[in-house]
Amino acid sequence: MKLYMSARAPNPRRVAMFAAEKGLQIPEQMIDIMSGEQRSDSYRAKNPLARVPALELDDGRVLCETRAICTYLEGLQPEPNLMGTDFEERAFIEMADRRMELHLFAPVANAARHTHPALAVLESPQIAEFGAVQSARVREAVAWLDEVLARQPYVAGGRFTIADITAFCALEFAKGLIRFRPGQEGFAHVQAWRDRIAERPSAKAGN
Amino acid sequence: MKLYMSARAPNPRRVAMFAAEKGLQIPEQMIDIMSGEQRSDSYRAKNPLARVPALELDDGRVLCETRAICTYLEGLQPEPNLMGTDFEERAFIEMADRRMELHLFAPVANAARHTHPALAVLESPQIAEFGAVQSARVREAVAWLDEVLARQPYVAGGRFTIADITAFCALEFAKGLIRFRPGQEGFAHVQAWRDRIAERPSAKAGN
């Protein structure tokens, strides 16, 4: 197997952190998205949609999309479980993970891509008004997450799951790219959770 | 169980079509999103994020997020299988489904929400420039899907899966809200696939 990854990109980091939690060490090839390498013919032969990460299997097939790669790794190495042990738990963890994807990760990514000058190479045209609205949505999502984390230790409930990885990678990206830090905005529960997650060895993977 | 649904909304339709393929008949309660009922206190007690659909279980817990609800229904009624029979197939179907979600469904929804006057109640502010860019991305996604469907009969490969439901509901929404029809734009493979899917009894569910 081989993982196609990119430096300082939040989706590759999700896969790296997930693999690290599993103790999986997968050979990596870095794709330089800031210079457009993902749009090269050689990479498009792997992923025609020109996105990173991608996982090339030993039979030559290429599995793309962050969460689909995690589903594969969960099957390959079931312990520790990060996505649910039966269909009911799988569904509730997927709910939590998707809430983090759709309401936190996506607004962070949109805000960064539409406002940060360095990301103009990834998002054209950048629409500043849209970026500002998305930044406001990040704050709304974190306000809601703060209520959740006042009641329970992890995003999906009582234990660490893929939903914590999605939320953590979103917030780490937000810190660097849109200067959003939960603690400074008054979201103490999110900040305390973030600081706990940052102590896990996996938090350094893909960073 | 009870499903909270909304008329003419693409995400509830995905769940309705998925349940219909399974032969599941679940009592429904309609939420009028055009009048803002999803933001009522009584509905927020079910889903604090004020989104439809949601599935209330018999023990009172509420499962939200379209694809998570499908994961639950797949576990409840495994046949016909729509999401993969082992982890490898589950991962590849999830890849296809997410590509349809991220590259087709999301741009359709964004284009509609940011340009259609009737949807101003759901998206504020509407940003016309963003809507126009998203419409262009719909076309790019359908162009890519047309190449895929030239090689294989269904979105994820040789058989009907959840990825067909996601793509079909996206395109049906696009037809009504942003006046996009694959056949008129020169995408004959997508149009032929769409017409085959439309003949399935499940295609009428949630419409």
Description:
Two copies of one chain form a homodimer. Chain A has 207 residues and is of the alpha+beta class. Chain A folds into two domains: 2-76, Glutaredoxin (3-Layer(aba) Sandwich), CATH 3.40.30.10; 87-204, Glutathione S-transferase Yfyf (Class Pi), Chain A, domain 2. Chain A has helices at 10-22, 41-44, 66-76, 87-115, 128-151, 162-177, 188-198; strands spanning 2-5, 28-30, 54-56, 62-64. A four-stranded mixed sheet of chain A has the order 2-1-3-4. In chain A, α1 packs parallel to α3 (66-76). The radius of gyration of chain A is 17 Å and the shape is globular. The A-B interface holds A 48-49, 61, 63-65, 67-69, 71-72, 74-76, 86-88, 90-92, 94-95, 98-99, 102-103, 125, 127, 129-130, 133, 144, 147 and B 48-49, 61, 63-65, 67-69, 71-72, 74-76, 86-88, 90-92, 94-95, 98-99, 102-103, 125, 127, 129-130, 133, 144, 147.
In short:
Chain A is an alpha+beta fold and 207 residues long. Chain A contains seven helices and four strands, in the order E-H-E-H-E-E-H-H-H-H-H.
Mean pLDDT across residues of chain A = 95
Largest interface, counted by CB within 8 Å of the partner chain's CB:
A-B, 33 and 33 residues
Please state the CA-atom Rg of chain A, rounded to the nearest Å: 17 Å
Mind telling me which CATH architecture of the largest domain in chain A this is?
Answer: Up-down Bundle
Largest sheet of chain A: 4 strands, mixed
Shape of chain A: globular
Can you tell me the residue ranges of chain A where pLDDT is under 50 for at least 5 consecutive residues?
A: none
Structural class of chain A: alpha+beta
Q: What's the total number of strands of chain A?
A: 4
CATH topology grouping of the largest domain in chain A = Glutathione S-transferase Yfyf (Class Pi), Chain A, domain 2
| Total domains of chain A | 2
The helix/strand series of chain A, from N terminus to C terminus, equals: EHEHEEHHHHH
Task: Bin the strand percentage of chain A.
Answer: 5-15%
Side-by-side strand order of the widest sheet of chain A? 2-1-3-4
State the end-to-end distance of chain A.
21 Å
**How many individual helices of chain A?**
7
Multimeric state of these chains?
Answer: homodimer
The helix content of chain A, as a percent range, equals 40-55%
